[in-house]
Design a protein that fits this description.
13 strands, alpha+beta, five-stranded mixed beta barrel, elongated
C-alpha cells in the first residue's frame, strides 16, 4: 500500500514539472519591443544629419543612424560658431546639424530642444582685411593678396566677440572673417570682426 502511494506521488510531481516546463523556459518579459520602444530610444538621442527639407519650423533630416527623421524645431535653442545663427530661420537645406531631442516628444514628428550648426564642408571662411565696402557688398583681401567680393544683405550676421554688430560697423581696414555657404560663395552669411590683437 505504501509503495502504491509512492508511485502516485512521483506521478504527480512529474506531471507538475512537465506543465511548468514551458513557463520556466520562456525568457522574462522585457516590455514592448515594437515601434514605440524604438521611438522612445530615438527621442533620447542626439541626431546628426543633413537638412533635406524645410517646411516652416519642421525639418526633414537625413541621418546615417536613423534614416529620414522629421523634427519640429519651433522654439529650439540655436547654437552656432560665433553666434552666426541665432534663429532656426537662418538654416537652409543641405546645412549639417546636430539636434538634441526633447525626450517627452511623441508622434511621428520629434521635438527638438536644441540645434547646433555643424560647418563641416558646407561653409567656407575667408579671412583678410576689408579693402572695399558699400551698402550691398564687401571686398576682402587675404594675406596672399587674393581678393574676394561678397554680397551683403539685412540677413548677414555681423559679430565681434559674439556680440551683435551692425553692417555699418564693417569699415575699410578692419580684419574680418567672412562666412559663406559653398553653394553660394559670393553671399556673406556672416562677417566676424577681429581686433588687431586677434591676428
Amino acid at each position: 500500500m505504501r509503495g502504491r502511494w509512492l508511485f502516485v506521488l512521483i506521478g504527480l510531481l512529474l506531471t507538475g514539472l512537465l506543465a511548468a516546463g514551458p513557463a520556466l523556459a520562456a525568457p522574462p518579459a522585457r516590455g514592448d519591443d515594437g515601434p514605440k520602444s524604438a521611438s522612445r530610444s530615438l527621442r533620447a538621442r542626439t541626431l546628426h544629419g543633413t537638412i533635406t527639407n524645410i517646411s516652416g519650423t519642421t525639418w526633414t533630416l537625413a541621418t546615417r543612424a536613423h534614416g529620414t527623421v522629421t523634427v519640429d524645431v519651433s522654439g529650439a535653442e540655436v547654437k552656432a560658431p560665433h553666434r552666426i545663427f541665432t534663429d532656426v530661420s537662418a538654416f537652409k537645406v543641405n546645412d549639417q546639424v546636430t539636434v538634441k531631442l526633447d525626450r517627452e516628444s511623441t508622434g511621428p514628428t520629434l521635438k527638438a530642444r536644441r540645434v547646433h550648426l555643424v560647418p563641416g564642408q558646407v561653409f567656407l571662411r575667408f579671412h583678410g582685411t576689408v579693402t572695399g565696402r558699400s551698402d550691398t557688398s564687401l571686398t576682402v583681401q587675404n594675406a596672399r593678396g587674393t581678393s574676394r567680393t561678397f554680397t551683403l544683405s539685412t540677413s548677414t550676421a555681423v559679430r565681434e566677440d559674439q556680440a551683435v554688430k551692425a553692417l555699418s560697423d564693417i569699415q575699410t581696414g578692419r580684419k574680418v572673417t567672412v562666412w559663406a555657404r559653398r553653394a553660394e560663395p559670393g553671399t556673406a552669411v556672416a562677417v566676424i570682426l577681429h581686433r588687431d590683437a586677434d591676428d
